[in-house]
Every structure is written in structure tokens, then in C-alpha cells.
Amino acid sequence: MKTLLLIFQFFCGTVVFAQQYALEWSYQYGTNIPIHPRYPTIESSSHTGEMTLLQHTQANKIWTILYGQPTVGYSFAYQTLGNEAILGNAFYFIPSLDFKVFKVKRLDMRVRVGWGGGMITKRHDSFYNKDNIVIGSNLNACVSLRALFRYRILEALYLQVGGGITHYSNAGFTNPNLGINIPFAQVGIQYSFQKPIVADRVSQQLMAELPRLNQSFRPFVQIGLGLTETAATKGPKYPIYSIAFGVSRLMARISKLSLSVEYMYNTSPYAFDRQNGAVELKHLNYARFSVAATHEFLFGHWGLVTGFGVYLNEHKYQRSVLLSKIGFNFYLQNYFKQFKSQLWLGCHVRAYAGEAEFVEVLLGYNW
User: Fold this and answer.
1) Highest-confidence range of 77-86, 281-290, 309-318, by mean pLDDT?
2) Average pLDDT, integer, range 182-198
3) Is the confidence at residue 367, as pLDDT, over 50?
4) Mind listing the domains of the chain with CATH numbers?
5) Nearest residue to 142 (alpha-carbon basis) of 164, 175, 114
6) How far apart are CA 120 and CA 103, in angstroms?
């Protein structure tokens, strides 16, 4: 009898587990876009085979309720880059979120946003692969953005078509770093297990327990440390220091806007000029002052950060007056429940306009 109960319990657990998931197989046809006059010749189209495990979120967590129960995805793929001899090929693993845009009878549209890691089989080498001026590292960040249309063929089977873009970059951590950009069209099938239903009272109780939304301005301070190379490849890494002061305000429970002023000092160009000995060294010439606006989508303990700003002073080897950044923050306390006295850790990619410059880690605190 005990054995039968254990088997029944395992079966029920398996059914509940399966109900939360879906499987997807897709093929992508695209092309690697040459973004530099010396970019290696693209000899063929890009072909990608991708498999994705999808997890249906339930209305039993605050962030899933606020975002309309998005689907979490885990994608693994093999991708050709258009010139195997110089660029090699790529493998990537990308966690992602699917957001529903609309649904009409059997047809729906979803937007998928993913950020993970990509392994490129061939990188720049001064002796053996000098024509690869695109990527200086095998391990890179990989970002995927796509819009997908699903048509339900059977109760749990969907035909899926769409398009998007895949981007590889090491964020300036290792030179060179032109990056790889592959727009693509996609076709695939998706088998979706039955989505579990959570009682309305569960989600209502979670929302009722949230504190009242406080939209007052909160001052904050943030310090950062980045690493980058000089213009040479395979050189040492040099630190970049920053400190910022600003104010932030919740625009909604899932949205935070910040305004800040920042001082940054980049030791890499200073070291480069000191080694060459061709210019007069003044530390102020390597410092940067900027103002920036930052938006953050909040997911409880996590935040997705995007920011834009302008540099207020001219500095050595300046490539643009514009700055941008994208990354993540991790809050020690759930931001939906605790607005003030927050301590966070961040990892951001900084760029001149859209050209990645370096990766920085941050420590911040708001009152």
C-alpha cells in the first residue's frame, strides 16, 4: 500500500512539473552584418539550430503578477557566423523572458528578451588569426531580441514564425571588440504543456500585502570599478574608478527612474600615454564628468538597467559626447516590499553612444 502511495505521489508531482513547461525547436536564417571596412568577408548566410525549454510562470509571485505572467526561457543553440575560417562558429546559452503582446483566437504575438553567454570558436590572434578584428575573446556576452507569432495547430502544438537579432560582445574587456550582429528570420514548433491555474485569491493576497507605493525622491550614492585594456591586444587590464550621486523615484511598482552626476577616472589611456612618453601627463585630462538618466525595470530583488547621458568635459581619446549603459542590479531586499535603505550590487556594460567600452561592478545605497 505504501509503495502504491509513493508511486501515486511521484506521478502527481511529475504531472504538476510537466504542466509548467514547454519545449521549442527552431531554425534561424540570417546574415552577419559587416560593421567595419576591414571586417572579414562574409561568405555565407548564418544558420542556427536552437532548442528552448520554456517555463510558464504562475500568479504566485509578485513580479509575475505585475508583468502579466511572462514565460521564462532557457535557449541553447549552435550558430554559424558566415566565415568559419576566420570567425569560426558559435554556441550560446541564453535565459530569456517572453511577454505576451496580444492574442486573437488561435494566434498570439510575443516579445522575447534574452541575455546570456556565447562561446565563439575562433578569436583574434596577432600571429594565427590577425584578420579577425571582430572579437578578441572566446567567451562573450550574447543578447537576443525577437518578436514571435504563434499559431495553435493542435491543443498543445504551435507553429511559430518571427524574427530578431543576435549580438555578441565582450564589452571591451579584451581587444578587439567590434562585436557580431546577426539579424535573422525564425521558424519553429512549440509543444506547450497545460498551463497551471493559480486561484485568484492567492494573487490578490500577495498584492494586498504590499506596502503603499511611495513615489518620493530618494537620494543615493554609487561607486564603481571597471576593467579595460589599452589600445594594444593581450595587454594588462587597467582599472576605471567612478562615483555617482543622484536621486531616484519610483514611477510605478515595476519602474524606477534615476538622475545622477558622476566622476570617473580611467587609468588605461593614462598608462598608454605614460608608456609612449609623447604628451604632457595631467590627471584631469583623463577624468570624466557626466550627467545621466537611468531607467530600471524592477523584478523584486533584481533590476534591468538602461541609461543614457552626456559627458560634460573633453577628455583624452574621447569617442563621443554621449554615454550609455545596460546591465543588472541585485537588491539585498525585495524592492517591491522595501523602498528605502536599500543596498545593491550591480554589473553594467558602459559604452560611448552604442560602442561598448568596459564592464563595471557597482555598489550602491539609497536612503
Assistant:
1) 77-86
2) 84
3) yes
4) 20-192 (2.40.160.20), 214-366 (2.40.160.20)
5) 114
6) 37
**Averaged confidence pLDDT in the chain:** 89
Q: How many CA atoms lie within 13 A of 243 on its CB side?
A: 1
> Does pLDDT of 28 surpass 50?
yes
231 burial (CB, 10 Å; 0-12 / 13-18 / 19+) is exposed
Region 316-329 average pLDDT? 93
276 against 346, higher pLDDT: 346
Give Cβ neighbours of residue 345 (< 8 Å, ≥ 6 apart). 329, 330, 361, 362, 363, 364
Cβ atoms within 10 Å, residue 345: 13
Mean pLDDT, range 71-87, rounded to an integer = 96
Nearest in space to 344 (alpha carbons), one of 356, 359, 327? 327
Asked if pLDDT for residue 142 goes beyond 60, the answer is yes
Please give the Cα distance from 142 to 212 (Å, whole number): 38
Count the alpha carbons within 13 Å of 186 in the hemisphere toward its beta carbon. Answer: 31
Spatial distance between the Cα atoms of 178 and 37, rounded to a whole number of angstroms: 11
CA distance 307 to 58: 30
Task: Output the pTM of the full model.
Answer: 0.86
Q: Are 268 and 288 in contact (CB under 8 A)?
A: no
CA dist 260 to 227, 294, 295, Å?
A: 22, 8, 12
Classify the C-alpha dihedral 118-121-122-128 as positive or negative: positive
Give the pLDDT confidence of 213-259 residue by residue, as tens digits: 888 999 999 999 998 876 655 668 889 999 999 999 999 999 999 99
Query: 258 with 273: CB under 8 angstroms?
Result: no
Residues 268-279: tens digit of each pLDDT? 888 888 887 767
